[in-house]
Design a protein that fits this description.
Elements (H helix, E strand, L loop, with lengths): L2 H17 L4 H8 L3 H13 L15 H11 L3 E5 L6 H19 L5 E4 L4 H9 L10 E4 L7 H17 L3 E3 L10 H7 L3 H7 L7 E5 L7 H6 L5 H9 L2 E5 L2 E4 L18 H4 L4 E5 L6 H10 L4 E5 H9 L10
Amino acid sequence: MPRLEELRMISRVARMYYESGMLQAEIARQMGLSQATVSRLLARSREEGIVHISIKIPHGVYTGLEDSLILKFGLQEAIVVDCLDDDEKMIQRELGAAAAYYLESIVRPHDVVGLSSWSATLLALVDAMHPLPRKMGVQVVQILGGVGNPAAETHATRLTARMAQLLSGEAVYLPLPGVVSSDEARDVLIREEYAQEALCLFPQVTIALVGIGAVTPSPLLAQSGNVFTRAELDLLQEQRAAGDILLRFFDGQGRLVSSGLENRVISMRLEQLKQVRRAIGIAGGRRKFQAILGALRGGWVNTLITDRFTAERLALEVSFSTHSAG
């Protein structure tokens, strides 16, 4: 076929596909071509410069920043949320809305969703969620002890119950404190039948939703009573703890801090979290920056949902290869 005639056919196919919105099969029928030929001509339209594809990123969408975080920290996914300023309550609300949409998009039939108990951001997530239109046999299990101060305990119960309702699934509670008085007390409590139902589901969790905390506890966690004493928090800081997930503390490089306090915690272990198909860390704000950085360096979460201010700071950090911590 002469060069000009070939370009004419390529242009004709390109206009039908890109401007008229016709399907490749429709173009093939109308022009008497095979669908494979139509596909080849569309590819040629880009090679010949007849078609130029450009993507206009909407204001408030940060795909380049997300790609940077994925590459730098070896993440499966990163979601960067637009925020007007570095206000913690506003960030929690925006992160919760973004996480709700993401969860609605990725949840599959028979997933086991693990949920941290004492997180204002996760509460915002549940408040922003829409109910799934059909039952999928999902289970929602608490992966951090949910018993504490009665005035705050309703948050943990509401979180698990409401998410299970929204997912048309079953709620499995962990009716134990997040922190107990001694190693011995922990060993006794986790052997109880009512605790084993939740604990035995930990290895089966397919989606985990966790907050990332600074060493100084959040107001909600502090109200819950599931916190260490001031002296114990000082000990963690002396050991250079940067933050925690599920009350399991790690340093700025993501290495677990071994102080003995971890033996009094009732929650999923971070080594278990690391095996979850989609371990989603949801956190942002200046106060939590070092904790988020440590969590990413340790590889404790494989998906991050954060605000753009935090994401920009993370992207500027010196590259650091994630490693198997602990």
